[in-house]
Amino acid sequence: MKAEIVAIGTELLLGEIDDTNATYISRELTTIGMDVYLRHTVDDDLGRIVQVLGAAMRRSDVVVICGGLGPTPDDLTREAIAQVTNRALQSVVGAEDQLRQFFAQRHRTVTENNLKQCQVPRGGRLLDNPVGTAPGILVEHEGCTLVAVPGPPPEMREMMSNHVMPFLRSKLEERGDVPLFTRSLRLADIGESEAANELADILDQATDPAVALYASPGEVRIRIATKAASEAEANKKLGQIEQIIRQRLVEHVYSVDEETMEVAIGQALRAAGATLAVAESCTGGLIASRITDVPGSSRYFLNGYVTYNNESKQRLLGVPAAILEQHGAVSKECAQTMAEGARKDSGAGYAVAVTGIAGPDGGTPEKPVGRAYIAVADERGTICEQFDWPGTRTQFKQRVSQMALNLVRKRVLGLA
Amino acid sequence: MKAEIVAIGTELLLGEIDDTNATYISRELTTIGMDVYLRHTVDDDLGRIVQVLGAAMRRSDVVVICGGLGPTPDDLTREAIAQVTNRALQSVVGAEDQLRQFFAQRHRTVTENNLKQCQVPRGGRLLDNPVGTAPGILVEHEGCTLVAVPGPPPEMREMMSNHVMPFLRSKLEERGDVPLFTRSLRLADIGESEAANELADILDQATDPAVALYASPGEVRIRIATKAASEAEANKKLGQIEQIIRQRLVEHVYSVDEETMEVAIGQALRAAGATLAVAESCTGGLIASRITDVPGSSRYFLNGYVTYNNESKQRLLGVPAAILEQHGAVSKECAQTMAEGARKDSGAGYAVAVTGIAGPDGGTPEKPVGRAYIAVADERGTICEQFDWPGTRTQFKQRVSQMALNLVRKRVLGLA
Predict the structure, then answer these.
(1) Could you say which residues from 215 to 254 on chain A have a Cβ atom under 8 Å away from some Cβ of chain B?
(2) Which contiguous run of DSSP H or E holds residue B53?
(3) Does the pLDDT at position B29 exceed 90?
(4) Taking CB atoms and an 8 Å cutoff, what residues of chain A touch B343?
(5) CB contact under 8 A, A390 and B41
(6) Could you tell me if B206 and B222 are in contact, meaning their C-beta atoms sit under 8 angstroms apart?
(7) CA A273 to chain centre
(8) What is the pLDDT of residue B94?
(9) Model confidence pLDDT, tens digit, residues B102-125
(10) What's the CATH number for B180-256?
């Protein structure tokens, strides 16, 4: 079943807010196996809204409209649906009573504009909105289902969950469509082309579950998807292919779906009953900040050292002056002694240290911008990896922090 | 001049990421006075991309395409532009050399797929991408300007600022359109309604320049805009109203346009020839990370202490055990001694310290989730502010870091 999304609102096109509603609705529709090929954003102009809706209805089985259901003159979704379906607007009496009650409870009076919100194109129905004043609209017209939900995110989400999704699920069932289930494996320390090489046969041959690679900001993901009659059946099929992929890329697959690296590392440390300290030069506190984004991180994270100048590397971490003189602050030797110093001073089981050249200045031919050394110290000793990736300063910090967290993860899990 | 935006990528329509690029591009185009009425998102399907581009080109003077310029087979923007303009793809030799060099620096080999990225539809030109592998494309076709920029946000932003916006500005000038000039004053530590009260008369009366308030995530901005024949004329008009607003809100206006708080603070410290150290508990390294996002920050930032547990507050910052016992780690007394300890240990002229309850757990009736204490120590003594703002853990960290940086800014500038 093909679905198209139309977001309405001049504020979106002025770039004043991110359209997180469109993301949410896309994900909801995709999750139950609908095909979302197109999404549009239109300003508050009746002619353009009607034009975009008309084209979407000709292409798709379902059109979900978000926004423009409020009481002000620039809320035009209701009128646009009436025009595009050529149906008159009619008041729904029960809805008017409900709206009057909503206002009375808040000691406010209903205006004529508000009552406009109780109108629906002939043959359509209103969708209840318990958390706001704007009811939704559902109209079936010439083989296409038009659904309109309000723009405020809590109202949109409530209505999607309680009205739109159950309705669409039953539509899919009626048509005998089997729902789609997906899982996304997140990879660290591997590029898209390298991952494609490792999985070449699977990517070529696997059709059910389907396996695809894609690069999301800063990382590569493997998306596996299957249509199945039940969640249990889907989990079995997805689990099997996940196992095979994990065996090939054991060092790289760090989590599934929305679980971040910092959450994965927290789980590894807690399972091992271990603690962590962090010593940062080029990432400037980003690694510690990411670790502490996780609720409960105080159970395994002890403290961090942001040793930006050489003097603090010596004073706080005990890096010998001789190392700084002979090898420089951006060196394997410095990273290793930083990690060892942080472990000793904090008393943590693991300590990770990074030093590098974030740029744009400070590079040399031997140590260019984008060079970093990442060291992890634990009771078994100290390991260190070199890393080269020029980019913007913030990209570099993000990538080095990801590599550093992944090296801790691998060390804790016995993979490095 | 009418502009339309086309975002390309199946991942957007699967709802896997928010399309922040579309927001950014909308804002940039609007800022110079272009009319953005429509935005579309299309999956990686050549037929649909060509269809959407064709319709957009018929309606608009400029079509900005974002994404689909990568090296994989599902990157189809280049082919789509070639089809819709009916022009053959041709390789640009200089670009190939540049790409080979980019890969060599990263110790990777160029593939045939990568070289595809150096092709451009006949008569078009490539836009340089210094931070990634995908150059952009600019083609003028039957009165419409087609511009394609890469999907990764840092690459997109770089290319928009350095290539696309200057080009579009000159287009507007050629057409004799009086360009719109805007300036956005960024405010800290004040809410939208409080700012509206302070500026009530200006917001009511000012028409040229127009003055409007808007809340962007985490802060309030004042947008002033005027149409003017030249940048000099615009700067004069905008500068006058900016002066009046700054006089009213001197403590709150911390910067203009895209200049962040961390850049503003860096300028203040450099102008004062001063240095800074940071001691963080609840922000977990975020303040230090933000400070070090600024190139050249090593000139004023010495080092940071992420003292997440009580023991490290004592060991690294010398917070007395008696303070932790009597007042707790989340207290004015603890914040002040943290700041004083950081200043003494680092030798910095200024030290800022934060301690608080990020949540979701750990709150009490006297010290609820969202409570923070922020202290700044310098040669004149130590000041401390209390802050209460419940929200998600990441919102809290962001807001506390902003408040802490603003308190440093005010202290350095003699405003606190």
Answers:
(1) 215-217
(2) helix B46-59
(3) yes
(4) none
(5) no
(6) no
(7) 29
(8) 84
(9) 788 777 778 777 888 889 999 999
(10) 3.30.70.2860
Structure tokens at B351: 């030290």
Confidence of residue B212 (pLDDT cuts 50, 70, 90): confident
CA of A18 to nearest chain B CA: how many angstroms apart? 6
Chain B residues with CB under 8 Å of A399 CB are none
With CA atoms as reference, the chain A residue closest to B281 would be A303
Chain A interface disruption, residue of B116, B303, B338, B402, most A CBs within 10 A: B303
Mutate to test the interface with B, among A8, A185, A306, A354 (most CBs of B within 10 A): A306
d(CA B138, CA B126): 6
- Quote the mean pLDDT of chain A: 92
Distance from C-alpha of A401 to C-alpha of A312, rounded to nearest angstrom: 20
What fold, for A2-174?
Molybdenum Cofactor Biosythetic Enzyme; Chain A (3.40.980)
Q: Give the domain ranges of chain B.
A: 2-174, 180-256, 261-412
pTM: 0.80
Peptide bond into A209 cis (omega under 30): yes
Closest Cα to residue A242, out of A219, A216, A265, A224? A224
Cα atoms in the 13 Å half-sphere on the side-chain side of B359: 19
Q: Of B45, B31, B102, B124, whose CA–CA distance to B77 is shortest?
A: B45
| Interface residue A278 vs chain B (CB under 8 A) | yes
* Tens-place pLDDT, residues A75-110: 899 999 999 999 999 998 888 888 888 778 777 778
Lowest mean pLDDT among A18-22, B111-115, B267-271, B326-330: B111-115
Question: Average pLDDT for residues B224-247, to the nearest whole number?
Answer: 92
Q: Which residue of A has its CA nearest to B152?
A: A217
Q: What is the second-level CATH architecture of the domain B261-412?
A: Alpha-Beta Complex (3.90)
Question: Given an 8 Å threshold on Cβ–Cβ distance, is A306 in contact with B286?
Answer: no
Contacts of B316 in chain A (CB under 8 A): 303, 316
Chain B residues within an 8 Å CB radius of A17 = 23
pLDDT digits (tens, 9 = 90+) for A13-62: 988 788 889 999 998 998 888 999 999 999 999 999 999 999 999 999 99
